[in-house]
C-alpha cells in the first residue's frame, strides 16, 4: 500500500464532516533515501482569508462567516500562554501562521457580548456539540476578541486536568475539609499573569490577606503581589487563586475593567474525579480548593462581565462517548448550577466553511493532486447523492532528517477513516461491500486511505 506507482487519481473522501476542525489532512510518506525534501513555497492567494480585516475584528459579521482571519504569532503567547489545541498548534507550526475561521457560533456569541448590559448579572453561555466540531476553537475566538477589546480574561483551558492525574494533593491550611493542588494552581497563576499583566498592577486588594504567621498582603496592594505570592510559595498557590478570583468578582461591577470567565470543559466541575485521598477514598470535585473557587466564579451573582463555557466529552470521566448535550455531560447537579444559561450549539462545517477550509489547504499546497487538479475531487463529492460520516484519527509527528535534525516535513503515523454510507465496494454509493483502498497525493508524498462501508443512513444530506 506504500508503493509510489499506479496512482491514477486524487481520491480523498471529502465532505463537510471529513473536514471538521479536529480533522487533519497531514499525510506524508518519507522518501526511500531517508532525506526529506524542503517544503514548497506557500502561494499567497488569500482569497479564503480575512487578513486585512484583523484590525477590525470587533466588526466581524455574518458576511465574514467561513473566512479565515490571521492572529499575529506574537499575540499567541500573550493571549494563549498555555498554548492552543494540539492539532491547531501543529498547523500553526507547519504553516507559520495562525488562521482562525470565523464561524456562526462565534459570531452569535460576539453579537450577544456586544449587546450585553453589563450592569446586569453576568450571563452564562454554554458552548456544546459533538466531538471535533470546533467548540474549543470557538471559545478561543471569543477569548481573542475579548482580549483585543481590553477585557481581563480569566481562562481555564481544560478543567478536566483539575480533577484527574494530579501529582500532589495537600490539605488546605485555610479549610481542613478541602484539598489544595499547588502544582496546578501555580501553573495557572503563571499563565494568568502572562495574559493579564497590566491589570494586576491597576487592581488593588480590598482587604488584608494572611499567608502565614509572618507573610501577608496588606489592603490596597496590587493584585500582582497576590499572584507573585502564589508563584514564590507554591504551597500558597491554591489560596492565591481563591483570593484572586474573589477580588476580581467583587470589583468587576465598578466598570474599570470587563471580566470574561472562559472555562473549557466546564462539565468536569461536577461529577466524579480519579483522585484519591491518603486513605484511598475518592475525592469529590467540590472538595478541591480550585474547583470550589471556580464554581463560585460561575455563579451569576456578579456583574461587569460574561461567563463563556464549553462542554467537552474529550477527557470527560465516566461519561459515554456519545454524550454531548448539556443534560448528558453536566448531569442534574451541574445543569441546575448553571441554569439559566444561553446554549450555543456548534455543528460540523457548513458547505461554505468546507469550501473555505478545503481551499486554504489547496492554496498552501498541503493538498496536492498529482496532476494539479485536486479541486475536481471536491466537485465530484459535492455532486454525490449520498455521503459517509467519516471518523478520523490522525497522529502527526515531525520526522528527522539527515543527521537527526528536525525536518519541517510532517509524517503520518496513523490515519483511520471509517464511513457509514456511500462508501460501499463494487455495489456503488450507498451499498455495502468489501472495504476499498484509494490513493491520495499530499504535500510530501503518497498516502493510502481506507474506507469501510457499513450501509447505514448518510449522516449529512445537502
UniProtKB/TrEMBL annotation:
Q: Which InterPro entries match?
A: P-loop_NTPase, Ribosomal_mS29, Ribosomal_mS29_met
Q: Species name for this entry?
A: Catharus ustulatus (Russet-backed thrush)
According to the record, the segments passing through the membrane are none
What name does the UniProt record give this protein?
Small ribosomal subunit protein mS29
At the top level of its lineage, which domain of life is listed? Eukaryota
**GO molecular function, a single term:** structural constituent of ribosome
Similarity annotation = Belongs to the mitochondrion-specific ribosomal protein mS29 family.
Where it mainly occurs, coarsely classed, is mitochondrion
Q: Per UniProt, which keywords does this protein have? A: Mitochondrion, Ribonucleoprotein, Ribosomal protein, Transit peptide
Q: Where is this region: Disordered?
A: 418-438
> Could you tell me which SUPFAM superfamilies the record lists for this protein?
P-loop containing nucleoside triphosphate hydrolases
Q: Which GO terms describe its biological process?
A: apoptotic process
Q: Provide the protein's localization.
A: Mitochondrion
Q: Does the keyword Zinc apply?
A: no
**A GO cellular component annotation in the UniProt record:** mitochondrial small ribosomal subunit
The residue ranges flagged as biased composition, category Gly residues, are: 421-431
